[in-house]
Specification:
elongated, alpha+beta, six-stranded antiparallel beta sheet, five-stranded antiparallel beta sheet, single chain, 20% helix
């Protein structure tokens, strides 16, 4: 409407200008007897025309500016109004099956189709919650509490004409599941993670796109005796996943019911790690009857642990010099010690599970001979315990013998290295060599 008025004003101005020019021409033509009246007329018309053009340019500029301001103001008001109308507040209450409020329930919101929840809050003492400044789109609403079965309302779209939307959740009280995790030898496994989740998404009786959530894992960690307790587990078919470093992942399907909650569950973790190899001499000839022992285990990111002298950690090479260890941890590293009566001990550190062709080459070794005498009586031999010690491939190796009445001692089949020799008798000190 404003633009049309500006256009009308422009045409009126042009008409007035034409009328003025006509009057000027008439005046000079009728009243002027001067011979120069034509040039005077042209001069005055030119000056008047320039002024009229300037007025018209300024008028057009003002009209265009006013039109833009009007349009910009309308857009801004429209945008501000849309923002005010679009943002809404999601509020509500979480109750138990007796319609009593549940405080401390975690309420999480995410746009439908996304994995990560973008807004989180907790219910207060009345079970109420509120999340503000949500945009008008479809949301998934997850409510979870350690003692209750988690629920999720999917694809919730608020009405466009309301700025405050209220929802309500009724959380069912979950079952309490207890149990123990052991290894294949019947020993408890501490530090194992036990997860339980529904095998499939199921809608609750109230409907309304509210489901028993299958993405929220109930997780517990086994204690020193391998025991665990899970709370808030819903009834029905569940997938139990038990994980522990060094063990194979265990997945079992269990029907959770009132009967299940009264009987402790038992899970057995297995280890599938394997190390095998061959023992040879310096000429690559296989050695039979060599004793191969797993002496230490180093988990990833943890200190090295010495392994007990048990049969499961000890093997004897066969006629082909072969040996094999099974049911080992699937991660970390093992230290191997190989001994044979005719050779020096061999040390092979940091062997990874899954190594199936470890070559353990033994050497004949060297001898160290000497004699022990008393410092204050150099001619008097000393019959004492003598210890020799060295570091071979990061492993401390020590050997002990006893000097004879003559004071002489000998160490045979020692790995090639530099050794310290000292007294092993507690009541006799010595100068280390």
């Amino acid at each position: 409407m404003l633009v049309r008025k500006n256009q009308l004003w422009l045409w009126v101005s042009i008409g007035a200008l034409a009328s003025a020019l006509f009057v000027v021409c008439y005046y000079f033509g009728a009243d002027q007897d001067s011979q120069n009246w034509p040039s005077t007329l042209i001069h005055r018309v030119g000056r008047g025309g320039k002024r009229v053009v300037g007025w018209l340019s300024e008028a057009l500029h003002r009209a265009d500016k006013g039109s833009k301001e009007l349009t910009s103001g309308s857009v801004l008001k429209k945008s501000a109004g849309l923002s005010e109308i679009s943002a809404f507040v999601l509020c509500g209450q979480v109750l138990d099956e007796q319609r009593r409020p549940i405080p401390g329930v975690r309420v999480s919101v995410r746009p439908s189709g996304q994995e990560d929840f973008t807004e989180n809050t907790e219910t207060d003492a009345t079970g109420g919650f509120e999340i503000a400044n949500l945009q008008p789109e479809s949301y998934d609403i997850l409510v979870a509490h350690p003692d209750y079965v988690p629920l999720i309302r999917t694809a919730y779209t608020p009405p466009s004409n309301r700025r405050r939307e209220r929802v309500e959740f009724i959380l069912p009280l979950g079952a309490t599941i207890s149990g123990i995790v052991r290894d294949e030898n019947g020993q408890p496994v501490p530090g194992a993670l036990v997860n339980a989740r529904r095998k499939q998404l199921e809608q609750v009786a109230s409907g309304g796109n509210i489901y028993l959530d299958d993405s929220t894992y109930k997780t517990a960690k086994t204690e020193g005796e391998g025991t665990f307790t899970l709370k808030g587990v819903s009834q029905g078919e569940h997938l139990f996943e038990i994980r522990c470093r060094g063990y194979d992942l265990l997945v079992q399907t269990i029907e959770v019911s009132e009967k299940t909650s009264k009987k402790p569950l038992e899970f057995v973790l297995r280890q599938s790690g394997k190390i095998s190899g061959i023992v040879t001499d310096e000429k690559d000839t296989p050695l039979a009857s060599a004793t191969v022992r797993l002496s230490a285990y180093k988990p990833l990111g943890m200190p090295t642990t010495s392994l007990p002298d048990e049969e499961r950690f000890k093997k004897v090479s066969n006629a082909k010099g072969e040996f094999s260890f099974e049911k080992l941890s699937t991660e970390g590293f093992y230290d191997l010690t190989v001994e044979h009566p005719d050779f020096a001990p061999g040390f092979f550190p940091l062997i990874a599970p899954g190594t199936l062709r470890q070559i353990c080459k033994l050497e004949r070794g060297a001898e160290i001979r000497g004699s022990a005498v008393f410092i204050d009586r150099p001619t008097t031999p000393a019959a004492i315990n003598v210890v020799t010690q060295t570091l071979v491939k990061g492993t401390t190796f020590s050997c002990e013998t006893r000097s004879e009445a003559s004071g002489e001692f000998v160490f045979r089949k020692l790995p090639y290295a530099t050794y310290k020799i000292f007294s092993g008798s507690p009541d006799i000190a010595s100068e280390p060599l």
